[in-house]
Design brief:
single chain, alpha/beta, TIM Barrel, 2 domains, eleven-stranded mixed beta sheet, six-stranded antiparallel beta sheet, 11 helices, 17 strands
Length: about 350
């Protein structure tokens, strides 16, 4: 079946899962409930800060209390949440609590999907009762050719939620990927999601050691992954809906749209928002920040157009104000571009004096 094209080389056959439709709009919060996992997939791209660690992140925010999750969802105007890990079913009580929290706070229409490598009917039923809308199963690669052994069909039989497979499109594993599609069709699953294989700080050695190569110097995607997905769609896209999500789609569409949603909601009067959803602001760095504050007051800068950030040891100023004043201030002044995320990652700075 010929796939239906999307942005950034992503595509699908038949229909797109609802969770993916919301991700496409940047309207899904990513909730990592643990970095622990019972599998040891060589291609796992999880970062050093999360892999194997029992931590919780809501998007880029390290969660210390349940209210952090609610606030982050509100900050992006989330219409849904993707629960991931590690394996969320290893911390079942926590995962169920978060599903219920999100449904209670945002209502039954808040769409929640979850990724897991665990096959456990009782846990699936518990998650369904809590309000889970979509289950995405990740069978380990060594079982792709003998999926019947996992008992997935019996485990998901009669569940009142959408169920599908989600795996990386690994070059050289066409037969295994076709087996996944056939098994999904045989047991009545709703979709198969294929993610473009990506290199990261934690899987780099494993991928390069297996003779995988990045597609280009400016991409984290592995050569041949996209083409493998196209083959899967051509051969099996008519028996089950198949969706290929490219590496560039995650950055150029999904993340970009989420950043724009967050920027619109968290921007202060001093912040300028770029077309890409980034925050543009002026920054003063000085040994005497209180002296810098006094200088701005002497220049009659309105108080809503500057703020002292003691944690980062800097004075934040409206960019247009600092551009005008940098020439007369005896402090280091910069024009800074940052992500509008909880970690405020800086991506570029330009000296103003």
């Amino acid at each position: 079946m010929h796939p239906i094209p999307m942005e950034s080389s992503s595509c699908y056959t038949k229909r797109l899962p609802r969770g993916c439709r919301l991700c496409r709009k940047g309207a899904k919060m990513v909730l990592l409930v643990t970095g622990r996992c019972g599998e040891s997939c060589y291609y796992c791209p999880l970062s050093e800060a999360k892999k194997g660690k029992d931590v919780v992140y809501a998007n880029e925010l390290l969660v210390r209390e349940d209210d952090d999750i609610v606030r982050e969802a509100e900050a992006i105007g989330a219409r849904g949440t993707g629960i991931t890990g590690g394996d969320p079913l290893l911390v079942m009580d926590r995962t169920v609590r978060y599903v219920r929290l999100l449904k209670e706070r945002f209502g039954p229409g808040h769409h929640i999907h979850l990724y897991t490598a665990t096959v456990d009917r009782e846990k699936f039923l518990t998650l369904q009762e809590a309000g889970l809308d979509e289950l995405r199963l990740h069978p380990p690669i060594e079982r792709w050719g003998r999926l019947e052994e996992l008992g997935i069909g019996e485990a998901v039989k009669g569940l009142d939620m959408k169920v599908g497979f989600e795996v990386p499109a690994i070059p050289g594993e066409l037969d295994g990927l076709l087996s996944i599609c056939r098994h999904a069709a045989d047991i009545g699953l709703d979709f198969v999601n294929l993610n473009e294989l990506e290199v990261s700080e934690t899987n780099c050695q494993a991928l390069l050691g297996r003779n995988f190569h990045v597609r280009s110097d400016v991409s984290s995607a592995m050569q041949g992954s996209m083409e493998t997905s196209w083959q899967v769609m051509e051969e099996a896209g008519d028996i089950v809906p198949v969706h290929f999500c490219s590496s560039s789609f995650k950055d150029q569409v999904q993340l970009r749209e989420r950043l724009k949603r967050r920027a619109k909601r968290v921007a202060r009067p001093m912040d300028l928002i770029t077309a890409e959803g980034m925050v543009l602001l002026g920054v003063i760095e000085a040994d005497d920040l209180q002296g810098a504050v006094r200088s701005l007051k002497e220049q009659d800068v309105p108080p809503e157009l500057f703020k002292l950030d003691e944690k980062r040891k800097r004075l934040e100023v409206a960019s247009w104000v600092l551009e005008d004043l940098a020439g007369v201030l005896p402090f280091r002044c910069y024009l800074v571009e940052e992500y509008p995320t909880a970690d405020r990652l800086e991506v570029e700075r330009q000296p103003l004096n």
